[in-house]
What we know:
The protein has helices spanning about 1-5, 10-15, 20-40, 55-70, 75-85, 90-115. It is an all-alpha fold. Helix 3 runs antiparallel to helix 6 (about 90-115).
Amino acid sequence: xxxxxxxxxxxxxxxxxxxxxxxxxxxxxxxxxxxxxxxxxxxxxxxxxxxxxxxxxxxxxxxxxxxxxxxxxxxxxxxxxxxxxxxxxxxxxxxxxxxxxxxxxxxxxxxxxxxxxxx
Length: 119
């Protein structure tokens, strides 16, 4: 499953850039960042009548960047879509996209954990 979700080489190369001293701290920080963003995103679901488009846009933007950094395959695309929908204030399309983004974020978090365990 891990290879379907992210490019393990990209992630492991990222961890190795700072050497073994930095790898564990960086891996932990990435896991915390994805967990925080996942939680922040879920706080906006389900979308109601008072949608905070700015907050969702910022979450999607940060998640896109993190997903690209770790080599995720699908999450950057979904995050970009959510970012654009939040920017255009398309609540109907955003309501359809955010659950996919949450689910894919879960998959990335699981894949990261598996990679870290296998280090």
